[in-house]
Amino acid sequence: MEKQRLNRFEYIFHPRTAAVIGASESDGFSQALMGTKLRDNVFFVNPKYKELHGKKCYASILDIETEIDYVIIAVPAQHVPSVLSECIKKGVKTVHIFTAGFSETGIEERKALEDQIREMARGKVNLIGPNCMGICCPKSGLAFIPDVLVEEGPVGVISQSGTFAEQFLSIGKLRNVRFSKVISYGNGIDLDCPDFLEYLAYDVGTKVIALYIEGTRDGKRLKAAMTEAARLKPVVALKGGVTEHGRRAASCHTGSLAGSPEIWSSFFRQAGVLQVEDFDELLDTSLALSCVLPPEGKGTAIITNSGGFSVLETDLCVKVGLEVPQFTKETMTELRKMVPVAGTSINNPLDAWPIYYNTPGTSGTLADAIKALSNDRNIHCIVLHFDEVRYLRHVFGEATEGFLKELVKIMIQGCKYARDEAGKAVVICVSLDAYSEDEEDRKYHLLVKKAFEREEFPVYPSLAACIKVLFNLYRYHRQRLMLI
User: Fold this and answer.
1) What is the mean pLDDT of residues 134-138?
2) CA–CA gap between residue 121 and residue 94 (Å, rounded)
3) Contact in structure between 74 and 98 (CB atoms under 8 Å)
4) Are residues 70 and 96 in contact, defined by beta-carbon separation less than 8 angstroms?
5) Cβ of 19: how many Cβ atoms within 10 Å?
6) Positive or negative, the Cα torsion across 363, 366, 370, 371?
7) What is the three-state SS of the chain?
8) What is the mean pLDDT of residues 15-26?
9) For all residues of the chain together, what is the average pLDDT?
10) Do 409 and 366 form a contact (C-beta atoms < 8 A)?
11) pLDDT surpassing 60 at residue 253
């Protein structure tokens, strides 16, 4: 990406000042921006108000004496041209049109209205939208929904859907995903998906690009941008509108030309982009790629505390395309030294519950067991499944928290060795019954989850998610080899 063009985008994401035109007491943009580091440089425009959120409210952007870098337009569609005209006259550098009701409606006069604002903006102002949520950038303070702006991180998101972008922020915060930029571009009549891909490809703050796309108006340029981005960093894509009904919905949603699912799958594959099937898989895989070294092989070790779950876990791995190989004789010899025979299995999956609790007959810790299997030449990735909270509460009662904290330290010690010394991909499953109303259970599960997250391990609520993520990491490794 040319230096001049890159600098242009830096200015878009890091404005000195911002204004909301159509601001109100309850609009989300005003509330979101007032909760960030931009709050002292945010201006409100609406002739209905004299003051909003403790600040003066202006009748027109032309009444503001300060230069304005970034404007959010949230007025009815028919008023957008006149407001945009004032922004251009003011010398605004970037305009984000939140307003919907343009070409996506399928109505000819609304298509003409969209064409009008495109022509007005051409060469005069950077235009994002219409029909979108715009930009969230934790580093600069740009935000489009209140109370979810998290600390800066490595995942960049490009979404054709505004709601999708909102959910990525909200649910991502709960799953410890940290973002560099989150972009909702809607109808994309000026700045479109390829523009943002080209920027994030060279953005030093972005390690992984997550993409939600419904369609494109310029397939050739999109493929070129994807290919260049995927050459430099992981790009994970979810295509909306893969069924006939979904394609119809995409056309109504953002006015996109969706295309057949076969064409898009081939499109992603040729560009080196990792395609996923749903929202959770996109979020989970993006998290993993931001903090886990992709495995060079399919061999998966599973550490569990249940013989029954070990069978299901093995089936899940095989179904998605991973392998659950036997440990080598050397590994099994090491494990048998520390794990008693009765009620355990030193096969893969490893069911070695007595060493969780220093049961008589054990001669090592769970960390020792993890270290032993992580050195196995057949093993490329590890799933640690922890689901012991209720049992611990039954055994230890009021002493549960203290014991659990020590056990977590031991598990983390083993997992850090596997990741940092043995170079294995490690993911954690901390499962909790979604219907559980037990606050103590939830508190202890959160304790375990947060402890692993502090050490930069990806934590997932289900085994299926862990296993699917590991296979996607392996897929990414294979795709990288083909691109080299």
Assistant:
1) 96
2) 10
3) yes
4) yes
5) 26
6) negative
7) CCHHHHHHHHHHHCCCCEEEECCCCCCHHHHHHHCCCCHHHEEEECCCCCEECCEEEECCHHHCCCCCCEEEECCCHHHHHHHHHHHHHHCCCEEEECCCCCHHHCCHHHHHHHHHHHHHHCCCCEEECCCCCEEEECCCCECCCCCCCCCEEEEEEEECCHHHHHHHHHHHHHCCCCEEEEEECCCCCCCCHHHHHHHHHHCCCCCEEEEEECCCCCHHHHHHHHHHHHHHCCEEEEECCCCHHHHHHHHHHHCCCCCCHHHHHHHHHHHCCEEECCHHHHHHHHHHHHHCCCCCCCEEEEEECCHHHHHHHHHHHHHHCCECCCCCHHHHHHHHHHCCCCCCECCCCEECHHHHCCCCCCCCCHHHHHHHHHCCCCCCEEEEEECCHHHHHHHHHHHHHHHHHHHHHHHHHHHHHHHHHCCCEEEEEECCCCCCCCHHHHHHHHHHHHHHHHCCCCEECCHHHHHHHHHHHHHHHHHHHHHC
8) 96
9) 90
10) no
11) no
pLDDT given for residue 60 in this prediction: 98
Q: State mean pLDDT over 408-431.
A: 96
- Report the candidate in 232, 173, 153 with the shortest Cα–Cα distance to residue 199: 232
Q: At CA 235, angle to CA 229 and CA 238, rounded to 5?
A: 130
For residues 80 and 128, what is the distance between their CA atoms, to the nearest angstrom? 13
What phi and psi, each to the nearest 5 degrees, are found at residue 149?
Answer: -65, 115
Residue 131: CB partners within 8 Å, gap ≥ 6?
97, 98, 99, 100, 101, 102, 104, 162, 186, 187, 254
Report how far residue 167's alpha carbon sits from residue 196's, in angstroms, rounded to the nearest whole number. Answer: 19
pLDDT of 111 > 50? The answer is yes
Torsion sign across C-alpha atoms 278, 283, 284, 289: positive
Tokens of 447: 């304790």
User: Is this structure's pTM higher than 0.90?
Assistant: yes
pLDDT at 1: 60
Q: Distance (Å, rounded) from C-alpha 374 to C-alpha 411?
A: 13
